[in-house]
Amino acid sequence: MSNGSVVANEAQTKSYEHEQMTLNRELEDCLRNVHGIDQHTTDVILSEFREKMQDAESQLILKQFLTKSKGLSLNGKTATTQSLPAEDAILQAPDSHEVLFENGAVRLLWGVSKPGDQEPSHLHQWPSLMLITQGGKFAIDYVDGTKEEDFWPKGVYELPSDSQPAAYTNTGTTEFRAFRFEIKP
Fold it and tell me: Residue 52 belongs to what domain range?
């Protein structure tokens, strides 16, 4: 390899590392200032991203998440005192939904489902941004009797509030991992 190639490769590596550092700073700023998430929870999220979201595709997904997050109007919201419906995900499926953070504007859930895991019927009452760090395949059984199979790849998704509860079974061969930013009214 010539000296020119080595210098070009080093420059490319430094440029990529700089871009990743910039993206991590933007993500931290978004989590803290747009979603209002505390520093400890922000650090937990950043750790997951560093572990699972380092490839080029993941970097594009994070950029989409930042863009969609910045379009939300979360500033100035105060704590809501509404009670949770009995079908809420954290009440019905606590083994697969962990509340990482909650304030008046957002509830941040960390969801993990291993192959074969069955989540009881539950719903998500608020619209959300879901950032999937590791995709998975699910069989979904709705309370109205409708059934479907779905694959959720790594990515960022805008989801409406659920219209009815559903039970989920991870029918894939990989562990599903996702952050769900539920946006309160």
Answer: 3-70
